[in-house]
Batch of 4 targets.
Target 1
Amino acid sequence: MAHTHFEHHGSDHNKPHAHSGHEHRPYGWALLLTLSFAVVEAITGWWSGSLALLSDAGHMFTDSLSLLLAGAAAWLAKRPPSEQHSYGLARLEILAALVNSLFMLAIVAGIAYEAIDRYQHPLPVNGSVVMLVALIGLLINLGVGWLLTRGEDSLNRRAALIHVIGDALGSVAALTAGLVISLTGWLPIDPILSIVVALLILVSTLNLLRETIHVLMEGVPPNISLNTVGKRLAGLEGVMRVHDLHIWTLASGQVAISAHLNLRELAAWPRILNEAREVLNHDFGIGHVTLQPEVVERTSVTFHSHRHE
């Protein structure tokens, strides 16, 4: 019976995750737009003397790297399972999200350092040029953001999107700074707005970083209760107890479970297995299921079926 279960379960694990065949294409177009405008923005920021514009250009350069990383991860994640990687390479998207989050933290630190220095030592800024370039940058960032929203939802895509949102905020800050400087000549607005943008980016990045680390640490997905799943399995007809229950995320949209089920009689296992798989998939969205039947087993953590106690 155990061998039958392994064969049935293994067929599911060997199925590649349902990624779109063109999942990586939005990243390619986004990369082209972002990198092209980053060059223009850097030159203009240097010529006009705007820290907000230079910061945004530096941000867009790192965004280009992050988009390249995200696109490569999305492309590799479509590769089917192999003998070396039985789940495929889908978790590369999680690693890309982690690297991009760390990139964002470095960007925030760099912007803050430059902003403090510029606040203490203000330099002349050509407000009109800053406004024009920042407006164009904002439009490009909105276009890139729209491209990324067309892709499949994942931590990898969200990490890339946070980069783009940060770019958009940077463009808004540069646009506002250019307007204030043109109207009032008040130069401190440039580094002040850069700090505000850096703080906004920091909050989003820390949230994403915490979620990414949770996945890498094989934590239980936040939308699933370990106790609820255990009690549902223990409530199946013929199941006495559930123990050694583990639930974790393989990659975005792929949740796995493993558990030991104590049974009244082993002959009921085929029916219990089918019912358990249906409940886990329909009620909790868990598609990778590994369940081991046992006649008697006790551990420190068990989920009891009130029906049989």
Note: The CA atoms of residues 48 and 126 lie 5 Å apart.
Target 2
Amino acid sequence: MKILCIGDVCGSSGCDALRKFLPKFKAEHQIDMTIVNGENSYDKNGIVKQTSDHIFDSGADIITTGNHVFRRKDFYDVLDNSDCVIRPANYTKNAHGKGYTICDMGRVRVGVINLLGAIYINAPLNPFSVVDEIIDELKSDGVRVIVVDFHAEATGEKRAMGYYLDGRVSALFGTHTHVQTSDAQILPKGTGYITDVGMTGPRNSVLGMDVDIAITKVKDMLPVPFEFASGKSSVGGIVFEIDEKSGICQNVWSFCENIN
């Protein structure tokens, strides 16, 4: 089976780019399942029901998130009631929503886990300890194909998690840093991996943000209003080809496609 994973959708530009890109790409490459990180899809940061609906209507099956998932309180109901929108699993049990889900595709069930990095982001719980428990639960339920979105800042932490889970999950893709890395690969024990899949949003930007605002922030070290850039966008993603019976990744390829 082919599982497509799309990097952080940033604001209106990212939502529009996803809508233009995804249906055609899925048809051309016979994609079986699509996972999209949507935590930055709202123009004022975070995610709201309107943008999650847009992402699903564009062709996503599962939406993963990250450290901005709780920024909009009116989204809590979606987190609590949807089986297709998940937040990082290593928040406490009192947090809204859930950290993993199972997508039943008929011939195969796919487990999707969302994790938050501990380095620089300060996740409430250790992601390495939390993920062990979830994997054991999924496998005891007969789930053979497992995909992880590791939303983390530190490259080393992402690489360490990849090797830690090698052979235990089908694929791991990193999100959060918005710049696609060139290390798409199959790890020694059969797990598909990339450190960061990149973002879906405005090309002429600083990680999606308006260039002038971002420069002011880092140059003058002063608070600035958050504002995404506009203009032509790109879509960053990766395709994992996974054997349904063994859960082993057989092929992996990443892309960054310009839109407009």
Note: The longest helix spans residues 11-29.
Target 3
Amino acid sequence: MAEAYGGNISLTNSIHNPKVAILITDGTNCDEELFYAFQKYGGDPKYVHVNELRDKSQNLKNYQILAIPGGFAYGDDVASGKILAVELISFLKDQLKDYINKEGLVLGVCNGFQVLVRTGLLPFGNLGKMDATLAQNESGHFECRFVKIKIEKSQAKFLDPYVGKTLDIAVNHGEGRFFARAQNLAKIEGQKLVFCRYVDENGQKTQKYPDNPNGSLKAIAGICDPTGKILGLMPHPEKIVDITQHPNWRRGNVEAKGSFIFEGMIKFAKQR
């Protein structure tokens, strides 16, 4: 496992691998798992502190993928991901715009998804304007367990090989209920921006608890923007890239299916 904040692991030759900026700040966690997952599937990740972007010692233009991990950025004060979202909009708006204009890939996991929604990058790429939110779980408490999601056809074309696949995946969140006004929800569905949903044992999308852990509308677990290059999801795919990360791995019939998003993004970045 990578050493925290700046350590490196050497699983692959990173010279020609897509460079991945793992964005960190106070309260970030799951960054080591994200680092490990990207490197395992052919990326060249580096921890980049938000202050390094602000003081210009680092620049997103030097990376092909920006990944925002889970955790509790700035203690989730005000609302989950809100302060980091405001920081990105207030101090790094131009840098983000330049990065997105050059078609860099973006992934936000859990707290990172909350950040992307609160910046307005998801769902419609309206930087500085919120068109959806992630509200408190309907259960009224923090959800920390494995659930099932199903990958479906979306604007994220590099995920096409995984469409129809159902996988076990970890969730760890208290504010994961995806919510949008009816007109925005219809737009999200109409533009095919949903790339994964919570499903039941039969692989059918569901609003029922506990299969839908937070009450997300339309069972939405992950979305992309209209370009298909900015993605966010509440579940943690980086927590199931090794079989031994599953609680029932000793019983067999377990696959490390969280690899789908890392394989897809890395392959796409290499082809560009």
Note: The chain has one domain: 19-271.
Target 4
Amino acid sequence: MRDQIFSKEIDLVDFTFDAQVADVFDDMVRRSVPGYQTLIEMVGLLAKTYSQNNTNYYDLGASTGAVSLALGLNSPHKNNRVIAIDNSIDMVKKCKLNLNDKVTNFDVICSDINDICFENASIVVLNLTLQFVIPGQRQALINKIHQGLNSGGILVVSEKIHFNDKQKQVEITKLHLDFKRANGYSELEIATKRQSIENVLITDNKQTHFERFKTAGFSQSICHFQCLNFASFLAVK
């Protein structure tokens, strides 16, 4: 279904992942996030490279289940379980529908990801999710994920980022807006969504992500993909 949520004048409220958003989410994210399809494809590639037998894969902030599908369909190992978690009941319903008949060994849980106990994990993915976690809670979450990962396990974090260099930030923002226009969003839609989401989506810069991984105890971390102001990080335990 095509995203037209912000195509009309509305009373502005903070962005929420309700039923209206769940219905158009796949279209919204594809037209709003440069490189989104590549982010999902990279999750599949990383699953082939880093997954381990008899372990859990966690998809945190699973939304409609694109990452869960990539994990489940690309795992070359045995006895793995995909655990998809989202705090929106509407997203959970969509995720279950999308995984049924495609992935056999999975759970979809409606919960705050901060309340999850991570166990026997070889892969944990935060795909466009950490940016919606309260900044003061982010380090604790990354620490908790690290503790639940097996040796050699990985954390993948894909996020919108910002730049400390003001001129670079201006240029990248301009290109991102052009990307949205090229994908059919009107000036009204762009402006209205931006106002709706600005108090909800709080970005970090690259260095903050790397410092967070180091503090948690990851042995190495890299930025393995970037398109405009969206980047994906790989941290290995």
Note: DSSP finds eight helices and seven strands in the chain.
